[in-house]
Amino acid sequence: xxxxSVKCLKVKYHVLQHGEKLIADSSHIQRYLKETYGFDLDKYxxxxxKAIAEAFRRMTEEHLYWIGV
Length: 69
What we know:
Elements: E1 2-5, E2 15-18, E3 21-24, H1 26-37, H2 47-68
Antiparallel strand pairs: 1-2, 2-3
Domain Thioredoxin-like fold: 15-67
InterPro entries: Thioredoxin-like_fold
Pfam families: GST_N_4
């Protein structure tokens, strides 16, 4: 069973729980899903779009988090 939690031990990272395994941070979760299940969220994106997506992901995780705290 896969389960995603917004907070784990009061840290700001997203966490994926797969059995006993915990994978923190959305980039690591995305890589885990791709390597484990072949599920590539960025499959149809161009190189430029992948760069924009990564920049947006980092901005939202690192900066917008503090708005809600």
